[in-house]
Design goal:
With 374 residues, the chain is an alpha/beta fold. The protein is built from eleven helices and 14 strands.
Length: 374
């Protein structure tokens, strides 16, 4: 049975990295006798240029009719001066809302061979996941910019949460922890914000009402969590938090993996529909130069296979292929630490391989080749 996938290349390097993800999925289809259908649709800056809006109705229609969505990246300086509702990021918020994608999962894993790319001197084992509430909070609350009585330019944003929104994301975190190491840290700013005090109260209520035996739950203020992530990230298993905090913390956590180019994500709805995208942006400074790191996009495709299509073996094949390619020394510019590209890659095994600087296409080809021979 064909799995229909809506593909939003978007802007900047988005088109390049989604092409590599599709390359990998086609290899998976051939090896495991699967069928994937791809429908390309517009969103972001390119959609503004071609249709006048960042999220055309046709894109929403196709995404709703698909089994999953692959998204590259949106945005760029070309569109930065537009009105808020006509910026590329409005398309991103719009598709999340239209598909009901309330749960964003951002795994943060440091591959052993990338330990030297981590900002920490002795990183140890880093394998955590950030569960971010995705369609509430300040990004979706009421906002306004206006002039007050004294003609001062004034703006506000509201961070609004309802108890049921908190409860459903907490359940996602608890269920994930049951499949992992069993530890959940709920992150808030309860010493200042009313929304965070409600967050903390509902998270604990949800924990008490459910059957989460074997799970430990703790609270941490967001500023402390930001510090702890770079002081001792190994203490974390599952972090659950609201939209704004999750956005910032997951970007901070990306440097633990060596680069944002290594960080995949999945955004899920209550119905099971999902959108899969790397955590990085459109990187317009390197767009079209074959310099982008496609691995976050490829790993996002693996998450799609596992979470939306129940294809665990196929997902594992992609993840193993990525790990073997990294072990062989291939590096895109964001994770390259050598001074001169090595001319040859020794066989896997034994001493660590020297690094070799490669482009987006060659990295995708290398992962595809590993899948073929796995």
């Amino acid at each position: 049975m064909t799995k229909n996938i809506a593909v939003i290349g978007g802007d900047g390097i988005g088109v390049e990295i989604t092409a590599e993800a599709i390359k990998i999925l086609n290899k998976i289809a051939a090896k495991y006798n699967r069928e994937f259908g791809f429908t390309h649709v517009l969103m972001g800056g390119i959609a503004i240029d071609e249709t006048g809006v960042p999220l055309p109705e046709e894109t929403v229609k196709v995404c709703k009719a698909s089994d999953a969505v692959l998204l590259g990246a949106v945005g760029g300086p070309k569109w930065d001066k537009g009105a808020g509702h006509l910026r590329p990021e409005a398309g991103l918020l719009g598709i999340r809302s239209a598909l009901g994608l309330f749960a964003n999962l951002r795994p943060v894993r440091l591959f052993d061979v990338l330990a030297d790319a981590c900002v920490l001197k002795n990183p140890g084992k880093i394998d955590l996941i950030i569960v971010r509430e995705l369609i509430g909070g300040a990004y979706f609350g009421r906002r306004e910019t206006y002039k007050d009585e004294a003609e001062a330019r004034t703006a506000y944003d509201t961070m609004l949460y309802r108890d049921w929104e908190i409860e459903r994301i907490a359940k996602v975190a608890f269920k994930l922890a049951q499949k992992r190491s069993g530890s959940v840290c709920s992150v808030d700013k309860a010493n200042v914000l009313d929304s965070s005090r409600l967050w903390r109260e509902v998270v604990w209520e949800t924990f008490g009402k459910g059957d989460y035996s074997g799970i430990t739950l703790s609270d941490m203020l967001v500023d402390n969590c930001a510090m702890q992530l770079v002081r001792d990230p190994s203490q974390f298993d599952v972090i659950v938090t609201e939209n704004l905090f999750g956005d910032i913390l997951s970007d901070e956590a990306s440097v633990l993996t060596g680069s944002l180019g290594m960080l995949p994500s999945a955004s899920l709805s209550e119905s099971g529909a999902g959108m899969y995208e790397p955590c990085h942006g459109s990187a317009p400074d390197i767009a079209g130069q074959d310099k982008a790191n496609p691995l976050a996009m490829i790993l996002s495709a693996a998450m799609m296979l596992r979470l939306s299509f129940d294809m665990d073996s196929e997902a594992a094949a992609i993840e193993s292929a990525v790990e073997r390619v990294l072990a062989k020394g291939l590096r895109t510019g964001d994770i390259y630490r050598g001074t001169e590209p090595a001319q040859a890659i020794p066989p896997l095994g034994g001493e660590s391989s020297p690094e070799r600087l490669v482009g987006c296409i060659e990295m995708g080809d290398a992962v595809a080749a590993e899948i073929c021979f796995s």
